[in-house]
User: Which sequence fits this backbone?
């Protein structure tokens, strides 16, 4: 994820209180953002199975939610 995309995801997550759908490009996991750490450029993610994780900016990309 580029710095611009990361900043946009963090803005939407922290200022607009949106959960942005994300995909981990290394392992394919899907989740939704719930926080960001600017110093380490990480996004806190709630995975689709309910677990919490933290992904670096380089590990994630914006995704679209899968249809139910």
Assistant:
């Amino acid at each position: 994820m580029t710095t611009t995309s990361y900043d946009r995801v963090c803005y939407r997550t922290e200022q607009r209180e949106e959960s942005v759908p994300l995909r981990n490009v290394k392992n394919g996991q899907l989740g939704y953002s719930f926080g960001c750490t600017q110093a380490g450029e990480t996004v806190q993610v709630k995975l689709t199975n309910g677990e919490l994780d933290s992904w670096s900016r380089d590990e994630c990309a914006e995704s679209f939610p899968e249809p139910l």
Remarks:
- The first helix runs from residue 3 to 14.
- The chain has a mean pLDDT of 92.
- Residues 3-62 form a domain with the SH3 type barrels. fold (CATH 2.30.30.30).
- The chain has one helix and five strands.
